[in-house]
Design a protein that fits this description.
- By secondary structure, this protein is mainly beta.
- It contains three helices and 44 strands.
- The chain has two domains: 313 residues, Pectate Lyase C-like, CATH 2.160.20; 97 residues, Immunoglobulins (Immunoglobulin-like, Sandwich), CATH 2.60.40.
- α2 links the parallel β1 and β2.
Amino acid sequence: MKRWTALKIYFISVFLLAGITAASPPAAAAVLTVGPGEMYTVIQDAVDAAAPGDTIQVRAGTYVEDIEISTNDLTLFSVDGPGLAVVEGAGGSPDVIGIRTGFGITIDGFTILPGSAGTFGIHHFGGAPTTPVTITNNTAEDFSSHGFSFFFSNMEGSEFTFSNNTMINCRTGSYMCGFNGCTVRITGNTATDCYTGMECEELDKGLGGDAEITGNTVTRAASLGPGDAGIDIRCPEDTTRISGNKVKGPFQYGIYIEYLGSFGRTPAIVFVESNAIAGTEYGIYFNYLLYSMPAEVTVRCNEVKNADHGIYVASMSTGLISHADTHVLFSGNSILNAALYGFYNNTGELLDGKGNWWGDAGGPFDDKTLPGTPDYNNPSGTGSRVSEYVDYEPWLIEPAGAEKPALLSPADGSAGVSLTPTLISGPFASLLPGVTHKASHWQLGTAADFTSGLMIDEENLSDLTAKTVAAALANGTAYYWRVRYRDSNDVLSEWSDTWSFFTGGSSGGGGGCEAGGFGPAMLLLMVPLCLMMKNRK
């Protein structure tokens, strides 16, 4: 009887496992191929034949046509490689590729040219798509209006990805507007010689967004004359991160940010960090730094050089700066060679600008008449100038350095460590744009304060995150170690925490049982088998 019970358990387990591993897959979407000798030679024909969820793969070649997409959730893919499938406008529409209202879409790897009449490269007519919109690895060139345009009303609770696209010589490289409760990723794009590089507006309407505008590069040749904005962001909300972008050239604004906290969830949370801006009239420009709600605004570790104004705050709504939920900080920024002002505050409200690098250890130039706000000045400073209502003291006496290193191995307090261990630290990290790991300074000794008993006290260019102890350490001895990093600006980080270890002896641990190599499914089968074996005894 017991044996029969075990058999029943075994067969039930087998059926459970079969249910786990053999669930019926959904019906596969179709793949339609376009190209010479394929079923379709015209992209529009394949689009018209496709059903929602299908993929259209396009072979290398030039396709002179205007494409209109009115099917949801299609994928158009340049199958032979990015840029090899070229779509050139045929002159029958201002949009070379138009996506009708409300549809999700993926477009990957195309070169898009205007032809005789195209003014928009990819133009999404908006609406409220509920399936993702992904535009990646495409190039739009020579459009008199927009290389890429997306005007939603509103895209809600979905995903929008605009990544690794290239815009060349367009009036506006890309324009995106109208999100609510969405994950928005605008990353790794390049705009070259556009009048305006990238515009992003209305990033949330109250559901709480997750928007990142990161790692984009916008440049404009000096010979083309002034442009408008490298990156133009209006109505950033909770939460928006603007980081790691590079803007260079004769733009009026490097990064223009307006109406911070307009429609979204309170408080608005916005990070502006690790951006590099050069050669613009205004580096980072805020119009209505605080607009209709309190906000947490962090502006840190940006580098602005050779601009007329490094950071310029034009306005904010009355009373919001003193709200309990408002926190505004400008810190760790490097403002170099500003022709007029490194930081100009036009609001009449005091802003926290402590801990910035103004290009000289003597601090920023400030010759305001006292009493003033703040009630100090620095007429002998030779760094970039600051206006009234900027609380800049104390300032950095050198550029911000790398982040504090993290130690990895040997673990703190570990025993039984080799007499020639390898000390391992975490990767180099710096919020400053373009800064790299130049060298590391290692210390190892028998004193916790490193004032005596040093076995290693050296800085070198090769042992950046790992240092092997060449000379054997003493057995059964406690040692202490730490490291700090030097960046490519020759600025040292602070020291890491100090960790200790003991050489020789036993490191402990071990013992016990492990289900090595057995996954949950195998264990599920073994339990009743074990019962069967037991019952046979």
